[in-house]
Write a structure and sequence with these properties.
Layout lengths: L1 H35 L5 E8 L8 E12 L2 E9 L7 E11 L2 E13 L14 E8 L2 E8 L8 E8 L5 H11 L8 H6 L20 E10 L3 E8 L7 E6 L2 E8 L5 E6 L6 E8 L8 E9 L2 E9 L3 E9 L3
Parallel strand pairs: 9-17
Antiparallel strand pairs: 1-2, 1-8, 2-3, 3-4, 4-5, 6-7, 7-8, 10-13, 10-15, 11-12, 11-14, 14-17, 15-16
Length: about 325
Amino acid sequence: MLNSIMPVFNSMFLFLRRVIGSVLMVFICCNCYAQDIAWMSGVWKGTGIVPGSLYSTDYVRTLYIDKVAGNRFMGKLVSEVKDGKGTRQDIAFTGLYENSGLKFNYGQVLYTKEPPYGQWWDCRACNSTSVIRISADTILLTLTNINCGQTCDGETKYYKLLSGFDAAVQKKITGAFGDKEVSKDINAILKNDTAKTVVPPVIDTINQLARTNTVIATYKVFSPEIKIMLFDNGEIDTDIVSVYHNGNKIIDKKILGTTPIVYTITASADKRTHEFILVAENLGNIPPNTAFMRIISGDDHYELFAKTNLQENATIKIEYAGK
């Protein structure tokens, strides 16, 4: 009796072992894949530009990615208008990570406060393309809407600092999304006859500060050290810029790239007001001249997009409120 049962028992045992082994393998693989994109979870700060918006062109946007499982994630998108009225809209989303890109599916509107005039347009059905890349000490996520109408088409650039990850994760992210493109001094590029990039000519302007100077942001900081970092906004298209600080040129004819152009000043009680004017030296290959600017002063971090042309400069004012 026992001998007749044993072959059946052995067959069942082998079958169960294979099933359990397969389940464990799937579980382990799923866990490994989930760990690969665990860096996505958390808060992504960003700025969105919608050129055709009837109310505002620039929006403060924040991605809150709450859960990551396998190659899927979920959270909410918060969009704000800098109008001092609390104008805001929160939208739930789910997403899929595949082929080094992200696909977002926007769902329920969780909260809305309409502007004093105008309204929030429903852009949830728009399809967006995504680009992830490393720029200096930051991982940048760029989402772009096209062919979805003037009130929805535009670009949002989100970021997370690499310093927020441990060394192993930093290495993994950099290996996956690192960009070998570097920013170079314009003179070095012009001297390089073998350079593949055709650099648009620099416009010789007699008085660049005589252009229209539009204030695009005003910030208050409490740390005396103020660091200004400039990157190209999106595709590298040989935008060339100069920067003035309180009327003095501090950056002269530099090409914007993925490696930041960095300048640091020290504020004091005697020197509290600091005005930076970003000047376009050309229009690049894709007008207008656009820059992604990061301002770091102690715990204060600000990010913004600046658009300039040969008639209009972008001005950023910083007030030191420390001792």
